[in-house]
Amino acid sequence: MQKDTQIFDLIHQELGRQRSGLELIASENFTSLQSIQAMGSVLTNKYAEGYPGHRYYAGCEIVDQVEQLAIDRLKAIFNIEFANVQPHSGAQANAAVALAVLNPGDKILGLDLSMGGHLTHGSAVNYSGKIYEPHFYGVKKETGYVDYEQMESQAQAVKPKMIICGASAYSRDWDYKRIREIADSVGAIVMADIAHPAGLIAKQLLNDPFDYCHIVTSTTHKTLRGPRGGIIMMRKDFENPWGVKDNKGNLKTMSSMINLAVFPGIQGGPLEHVIAGKAVAFGEVLSDDYTEYALQIQKNAQELAKLLVAKDYNIISGGTDNHLVLIDLRNKNISGKKAEQALVKAEITCNKNMVPFDDKSAFITSGVRIGVPAVTTRGLKEKDMQFIVDSFDKIIRNPEDENVIAGIKGDVNAFMKDFPLYPELG
Length: 426
Ligand SMILES: Cc1ncc(COP(=O)(O)O)c(C=O)c1O
Prior knowledge:
Blueprint: H1 5-20, E1 22-23, H2 33-39, E2 50-51, E3 54-55, H3 61-78, E4 82-84, H4 90-101, E5 107-111, H5 127-130, E6 133-137, H6 148-158, E7 162-165, H7 176-186, E8 189-193, H8 198-202, E9 215-219, E10 230-234, H9 254-266, H10 272-285, H11 288-310, E11 314-315, E12 324-328, H12 336-345, E13 348-349, E14 351-353, E15 367-371, H13 373-378, H14 385-397, H15 402-416
Helix pairs in contact: 2-10, 3-10, 4-9, 6-7, 11-14
Bound molecules: pyridoxal-5'-phosphate (PLP).
């Protein structure tokens, strides 16, 4: 059989790009080679609709063990009773929870997309804003921190069925206890979407959402450093409060409603090869090496924030508790879009991002979001943040100077040579 050189040449080029550049996209990471190998395995051939021990296909004895290992490891990481590892992505995990909890037209309350929220938390262009009735809270203009008073007043006014906390571009920790109190006062369910900080929560470096939030979703590919995918978790299972019954007349548990919402609700056969990759990554998260990694993420992010502030960059909320910073570039007279385009020419990859109370559109934006999970996987430490900030700053000050950009690109490529990525791949 002829090798598909067109595709494998492109994969090789992408490996080169990942190796030579500074990867600062907050939602990206480099999963381990053994996780990649698990994904690129014969498990992709297997249909396994259903759950371990209860499948609609024959021949699932081995993939049952793979999926059960992923579930057991995930439960051990977060000290929880329930885990569904089948969602193909974070958006799928959130869609499954919505299908389990909500009826069309029900009200939801989430963080506004333009304040750092995610599309699946009620955006008008997403199923969550089309099928359900979305309402929003934001962050405080003066501090950049979540406005819990606004969350509370909105909850009282709207009486949502579900409150969603969690974000894509928010650098501070969450007060889950307070959110639960607000939810209880209006009889709402709380869903925490920890897609971004999950790896730090896994190592108790941030507040634990599980005691207060009924349902927790996450991606597996950001700080958790696994393959691209989603998960749904609960510390304690509970009977649904809406009186939904099974065919024997018993109240359904939330875990059964969530499992049914994932399959057959929104997905068909699970991606057992990806679930194997997740299991590998979860095993790594349980290791001491990963504890070191998570601690280093936080140290790097804090150092990065400090150095940026020293160069007069306006960081939303003034700093970070997690793995990212959101920078308002308005005092530097450059849009997020222009900054992103100039930076990528120097192989510094980060993304333009709206900042709270932005006066520019989502296509232009006033800010950029920078995260350190990927560079921390490469091995960069606090002392290396100075190189990142200096390189970033030179580009922001000279976005049209091709000589400056070429010089920085050379520096970046040379710098990253000291931090090998997938050396086994040659
Ligand atoms: C908070 C949050 N939730 C959900 C998602 C969706 O994840 P995915 O891209 O895997 O669907 C993201 C991705 O950026 C996210 O930041």
